[in-house]
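W.,

You were right to be curious about this one. When I first looked at the sequence I had no strong expectations either way, so I just let the prediction run and decided to look at it fresh. Below is the sequence, 440 residues in total, followed by the output.
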Amino acid sequence: MNRLVFAAIFATATILFSVDVSISNVADFLIPFTTSSLGISLFLILTTIFILLSFVLIRLIKNIASQIISGSNYFRILHYIVLATQLSLIGILVVILTQILTFSEYSTFLLALATLVITASAAAVCVISLVILLGWYRVNRSSYVALIFAVAFAFNIYIFLYLGITDTFKLAAKSDFITPESEVIYASDTYQPGTINSVLWDIYRIGTTGIFLLFLAGSAMMLRHYASKIGRVKFWTLILLPTVYYSNTLVDTFGLYVPKSDTDFFNYYVYVSLNGVIGGVLLGFAFWTIAKVMRANKLVAKYLQLCSYGFVLNFIAGVGVLVASSYPPYGFVSFAMLTLSSYMIILGLYSTAVSISQDIRLRQHIKDLSKTDSGFLNTIGQAQMEKHVQSKASDLENVAKEQRMELEKKSGIQSSVQQQDIKKYLVEVLQEVDKHKSSS
């Protein structure tokens, strides 16, 4: 697909999904709008965008990571889970829309079913992601990035299972069918201190914030490898800026502000919804910006872009509220991106992390080669140095290239070190060896 066409579709989806989650958080204030022809038409547009974006993203994943998916049983299973989930959710949405347009009502059972499908499949994606990351850490004990992301996915498993179980029970307590006259009721999240419900809720609230911080810390550690390419000040600004916006959600997490009027409640929940979305957008923007400077290596740039799109959609999905069961069910299409976006994140993060690890191993291999074959530097004069360094670099370049190809073949993931980078690094190492020998 043309890059501009995809950008237009994704930008449109991001804006509309942001509207969707905002409405889902204040649907009790907007019943005259949501139940009107305009409100139903907007939901129809959201459904259409969801279906279109689902197929576009699955096709994008297949184009970028077909070699990884075909070469790994874990990623192949993940791909089938995501494909089955999206097709199931599309089917449920079509049935709900048919019920709304035909009978002016829809089944609460379908919302409960969708909630179970979304949360169970998202949890399954996180379980497999956890296995993948821990497996990578066992092989590379120095890869603390994999461990940080593994902890984040472990927290996500709890979050998704908690949501799936509690929201399904809350939906089961509602009427069998939702109509335009149905009251929009948000379930209470206040529990008696010390009870099991209170403890589980506190873990959920703190866990959502912890996940964001873990992803941010892991991303910073992983992407610092590319900090010099965009400038360190710009790099750390991109990494830390999402924290500023996302920290505003702590007001709700820790109950630091309690609205006093209906207007305060409306403005506050729209504000919190958009702040959560902006936090995800800014984190995604950091990956997208670094991807832009990696255009020399298109595949690694695409891994980073996959992370970018995944983070944006994942944070939007996490803000939506489906349990209120408004008419029509605003928040559904955004929440339905949870599994697909989680898959995009693990695929992008893992591919990027493996690529970076390969770069480090390749650079060490180049360094070892250069030091091993640097004896010739003792036998030549300073005037001949540049010529011989360039000549020797060309000889070693082929050896390093073979090592790079071997690493890529084993992992199925392309290294971000390109041919010109190999030669440049060889020259730098050889010159450094010469300086060391001259000073000794």
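Here's what jumped out at me. The chain has two domains: 3-352, 373-439. And, maybe more interesting for your project: The longest strand covers residues 106-107.

Coffee later to discuss?

I.
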